[in-house]
Amino acid sequence: VMGGRFVQGTFVGDGGFEARWVVGYSNVAAQYESVFYYTGNTGIESTTGAVDPDNGTLVMNGVTLDPVTGAPHERRIITTFVSPDEIREVGYARRGGREVKTYEMTYTRNR
Fold first, then answer.
1. pTM (2 decimals)?
2. φ/ψ of residue 92, rounded to 5
3. Cβ atoms within 10 Å of 7's Cβ, excluding its own
4. What is the pLDDT along the chain (111 residues), one digit of tens a residue?
5. 79, 106, 110: which is closest to 19 by C-alpha?
6. Sign of CA pseudo-dihedral 81, 20, 40, 12
7. 79 CB-contact burial (10 Å; exposed 0-12 / middle 13-18 / buried 19+)
8. d(CA 74, CA 63)
9. How far is residue 28's CA from residue 8's CA, in Å, rounded to a whole number?
C-alpha cells in the first residue's frame, strides 16, 4: 500500500468475523505503528513496537478497551514472519494482573 510504505491485511473467519489492519514503520517516531479494526466492536485499536533482534518477531504494544466492560487493558501482539506468503500473529491481554492469550491468526498472501 502506498508504494510499499505500509502493509494492509484482511482476515476472514467463521461466523462473519472479519478483521483489517495496516502496519508500517514510522521514520519520524522510529517505531512500527499499526491500526486494527474488526467486526467484534466499533473501536479502532492502535499499537506501536519494534522487531525483536533475537528472533526477528515484531512485538507491538498498546492499550485497548474491553468490549464487554469498557475498561482499558494492556495488549501485546507478537507477529512472526513464517515465509514471504505467511504471517502468524498471537495476541495477549493483561487482565487481573496477568497476561492471557486472546487469539492466534495466520495470514496467507492472496495472489
1. 0.80
2. -130, 150
3. 14
4. 888 889 898 888 888 889 898 999 999 999 999 999 988 778 899 999 999 999 999 999 999 887 788 888 899 999 999 999 999 999 999 988 899 999 998 888 877
5. 106
6. negative
7. buried
8. 4
9. 20
